[in-house]
Design a protein that fits this description.
Blueprint lengths: L15 H4 L1 H23 L11 H5 L5 H7 L5 H17 L3 E5 L6 H14 L4 E5 L1 H6 L14 E3 L4 H11 L11 E5 L2 E5 L37 H4 L4 E3 L18 H4 L6 H15 L3 E4 L6 H13 L5 E6 L7 H9 L2 E9 L3 H7 L5 H13 L3 E8 L6 H16 L5 E6 L2 E2 L3 H4 L6 E3 L10 E2 L1 E3 L9 H12 L25 H5 L13 E2 L7 E4 L3 E7 L4 E7 H13 L8 E2 H11 L4 H4 L2 H8 L2
Parallel strand pairs: 1-2, 2-3, 6-7, 7-8, 8-9, 9-10, 10-11
Antiparallel strand pairs: 3-4, 4-5, 12-14, 13-15, 16-20, 17-18, 18-19
Helix pairs in contact: 5-6, 11-12, 12-13, 13-15, 16-18
C-alpha cells in the first residue's frame, strides 16, 4: 500500500546507487509503517506518533489546566492498549513503587495516563516522575493538580533522590530528608531538598543494565537518508556517558546553568572500558553511543588507547566540540579504536556570532578539525543554527556559503539546520538585554523552558528554513555546488561576502613543528612486513584502506622497524620523542629531515 510518503520515493533512486538494495527495501518498509501511523493519527487517535504521544499539549504547557482537561477525556484505542500493557506489568511484578522516566514533551501525557490508571486501580502504589523533561521544564512547578496522579517528582540525576525516596517509603528516613524532590504537603507544592546534596560521583556509578528489555523486538527504521540521522533510528546502540556534564559549559544558547550540563565530572579510561566490556557481555552488542554533551578529547584519547590495548572489537560515535585538540593523530587513534562518526555544533558560520555564542571555536578551526576526522574515515555531522539573536540576513547567507564549501572540501558529510529556540535556563534567557531581544513572559505554574521572544532586528528568520534545508539536502548528496545561493530562496537575499576559496585557505597547512621532547609516540599500525634487498630494505605497511611500501637503505630501514616495534601500543614502556631523536642523531644528522620527509608522512598516515 502506498500513499503520500511514496510520492517522492521514486525521486530517491539516485541515493540508493550507493546505499544498495537492502537499504532501499528498509526505507520503503519504513515509509509503509509510517503511513500506517498516519492512518492511525487521521482516523483513530490524533495524538499518535511512533516516537511521541500528545507532544503538542506538553510543548508549551505553562499551565497544567489544558493537560488536566485532556486527562478527563475517555481513553482512545491506543491508550486502552497502553493501559492493558501497563496492567500486565503491574500484575506480573507486583511493585510497591513505579517510576516514569520523561525525557521529552512527547512522553509526558502518556506517563500521566499511566499514573492516572495506577491511582484509581492501585491506590497504595507510589508513583514518581523524573527525567529530562522534569529537569528542564518543571523547575518552577507550583500547580498542585499534577499531584492527583503522582506522589513525587525528582530533578537532576536520579540515583540519590531515588535512594532517599525508597528509604522514606520504607520508613528509614523522614520526609524532610528528601533531596531534589517536589512533594505535595499542606495543600501546596514543596521542593524538598536537604542540603548538602548527595551526588553520586560519575566514576562510582555502576554499569547501566538492559536486563529485562526485549532487545530483539526493537524495530530499526530507515526514515531519512541523512547518513547521520539514520544512526539514531537504524539499529540499536548501547548507551554510555564518557563524562558527566560539559567541560566547556559556556555556550550562551545552552542550558549551562542546569546540573546535567553545568556539573562536570570525569572517570578513568579503565573504568569506562570495563563498562564497555560488561555491556557487550550482557547485550551481545558491540556498538556504543556515548551520549555526552561534549566528550572531552583528553578522555577520548585515553579511552581509544585502552580499547586498542585490550584489542576490543567495538564501533562507537559521540558528540564533541570542534576544538583544535582533535588533530590528525588523535582522529587516527579514535578511528583505530572503532570511532565511526562524530556530531558537533558548528551552529553558525560567522565568527562574530560564534564569539557572541561563546562557542570557543572559529570557522578556520572547525574546517581543520572536521577535515582531520574525515581524513580518518570518521563521518562528521554538523549541527547548524539560524535565527540567533542579532543575526542578519547577510550572516545567514554567508553561513550557507561556508556550509557549501565545507561539504565541497570533504570536511563534513552530514548536517541539520534548526531555528534558534530561547530557553529559560540559558545565558540568553537569563540575560536577554545583552542579546537585544525582548522575551514574552507569561505566568508560569507548570512547565517553563521554551520562551517566545522578539528580536531587535525584526527579521523573519523562519522564512529561511525551507531554503536552508533544501540546499543542505543537495550538498549532502554531493550535487548543486554550482547553484547560485539565491536560487534556494523564494525571496530576495543578498550576495554572499565569503570568498569562493575561503575554506580551502583555512585548510592550507601551517608550518609544521617538531613534537615536544616529552610527547609520547605510539605505533597503532600493523606489524611491518620487511624484505631485504641488496643494499636496501622494503618495508610494507598495511591499513584498512591501503598498503604502502617504503624502500630505505638497510641501516635506516632496520632502525625504523626496530623503533616501530618499540612504540607499539602493546609495549610496556613509553617512547618519547626525545628518545627517538637521540637514537637517530647518534648515527645521522638532525632528525628534522627525516621527520618531515615523504616516507614519514606515509608512516604517520599508516598509524
Amino acid at each position: 500500500p502506498k500513499f503520500h510518503r511514496f510520492q517522492e520515493a521514486n525521486d530517491l533512486d539516485y541515493s540508493f546507487g550507493d546505499m544498495g538494495m537492502l537499504d532501499k527495501a528498509k526505507h520503503y518498509a519504513t515509509l509503509y509503517i509510517e503511513e500506517l501511523g498516519d492512518f492511525i493519527q487521521a482516523n483513530i487517535d490524533e495524538d499518535f506518533a511512533f516516537t511521541k504521544y500528545a507532544e503538542k499539549i506538553a510543548r508549551t504547557a505553562s499551565s497544567f489546566a489544558p493537560i488536566e482537561a485532556k486527562l478527563q477525556e475517555p481513553l482512545t484505542l491506543v491508550e486502552e492498549e497502553y493501559i492493558s500493557l501497563l496492567k500486565n506489568k503491574i500484575e506480573a511484578h507486583q511493585p510497591t513503587v513505579i517510576g516514569f522516566t520523561i525525557p521529552f514533551p512527547g512522553n509526558l501525557f502518556s506517563s500521566l495516563r499511566g499514573a492516572q490508571y495506577i491511582k484509581v486501580n492501585y491506590p497504595n502504589l507510589k508513583v514518581l516522575f523524573g527525567g529530562g523533561y522534569c529537569n528542564t521544564e518543571l523547575r518552577k512547578l507550583s500547580d498542585p493538580t499534577i499531584f492527583k496522579y503522582v506522589d513525587f517528582i525528582s530533578l537532576d540525576d536520579g540515583e540519590a533522590p531515588l535512594k532517599k525516596l525508597l528509604d522514606y517509603i520504607d520508613n528509614k528516613c523522614e520526609l524532610h530528608e528528601l533531596e531534589r524532590t517536589f512533594i505535595f504537603k499542606e495543600n501546596k507544592v514543596i521542593y524538598q531538598n536537604k542540603k548538602p546534596n548527595t551526588h553520586l560521583k560519575h566514576a562510582k556509578l555502576p554499569t547501566p543494565s538492559y536486563k529485562g528489555l526485549p532487545l530483539k523486538k526493537y524495530v530499526s527504521f530507515l526514515d531519512v537518508l541523512n547518513p547521520m540521522h539514520r544512526m539514531w533510528s537504524d539499529g540499536r546502540w548501547n548507551k554510555l556517558t564518557v563524562s558527566h556534564g560539559c567541560y566547556w559549559a559556556k555556550c550562551s544558547f545552552c542550558d549551562v546553568t542546569l546540573d546535567y550540563i553545568g556539573r562536570y565530572e570525569n572517570t578513568t579510561a579503565e573504568d569506562l572500558t570495563n563498562k564497555i566490556e560488561e555491556l557487550i557481555k550482557e547485550t551481545g552488542n558491540n556498538g556504543f553511543h556515548f551520549v555526552d554533551e561534549a566528550a572531552p578529547p583528553k578522555m577520548l584519547k585515553s579511552l581509544s588507547k585502552e580499547i586498542i590495548k585490550r584489542k576490543l572489537k567495538v564501533v562507537w560515535w559521540t558528540n564533541i566540540r570542534f576544538e583544535k585538540t582533535f588533530d590528525n593523530e588523535l582522529c587516527l587513534l579514535m578511528a583505530k579504536a572503532g570511532c565511526i562518526a562524530v556530531t558537533g555544533g558548528l551552529e553558525v558560520a560567522s565568527d562574530r556570532l560564534l564569539k557572541l555564542m561563546k562557542k570557543g571555536v572559529s570557522i578556520k578551526q572547525v574546517a581543520q578539525v572536521t577535515k582531520s576526522f574525515s581524513k580518518s574515515s570518521i563521518l562528521v555531522h554538523a549541527y547548524l543554527m539560524y535565527g540567533f539573536p542579532t543575526e542578519t540576513k547577510q550572516e545567514t547567507i554567508d553561513s550557507v556559503e561556508v556550509v557549501r564549501q565545507l561539504f565541497q572540501e570533504g570536511c563534513i558529510q552530514s548536517g541539520f539546520w534548526h531555528q534558534f529556540a530561547l530557553t529559560a535556563h540559558s545565558p540568553v534567557g537569563l540575560n536577554p538585554d545583552a542579546y537585544n531581544i525582548t522575551p514574552h513572559i507569561e505566568p508560569i505554574t507548570f512547565a517553563n523552558n521554551d520562551v517566545q521572544f522578539t528580536d531587535s532586528t525584526g527579521i523573519e528568520h523562519e522564512k529561511f528554513g525551507f531554503g536552508l534545508k533544501k540546499s543542505l539536502y543537495n550538498y549532502m548528496h554531493g550535487i548543486c555546488f554550482d547553484t547560485p545561493l539565491a536560487e534556494w530562496f523564494d525571496f530576495y537575499t543578498p550576495n554572499t561576502d565569503i570568498a569562493p576559496d575561503f575554506i580551502a585557505h583555512c585548510l592550507e597547512s601551517e608550518e609544521e613543528k617538531l613534537p615536544r621532547s616529552t610527547d609520547k609516540l605510539v605505533w597503532i599500525g600493523t606489524t611491518p612486513a620487511v624484505e631485504n634487498g641488496e643494499d636496501f630494505v622494503a618495508i610494507t605497511l598495511h591499513s584498512k584502506k591501503a598498503t604502502e611500501t617504503l624502500e630505505l637503505d638497510t641501516a635506516l630501514g632496520e632502525w625504523l622497524v626496530s623503533w616501530l616495534s618499540a612504540m607499539h601500543y602493546s609495549a610496556e614502556k613509553v617512547t618519547t620523542f626525545k628518545q627517538l631523536k637521540d637514537s637517530f642523531e647518534k648515527d645521522y644528522d638532525d632528525i628534522e629531515a627525516l621527520w618531515f620527509s615523504e616516507e614519514m608522512d606515509v608512516v604517520r598516515d599508516m598509524g
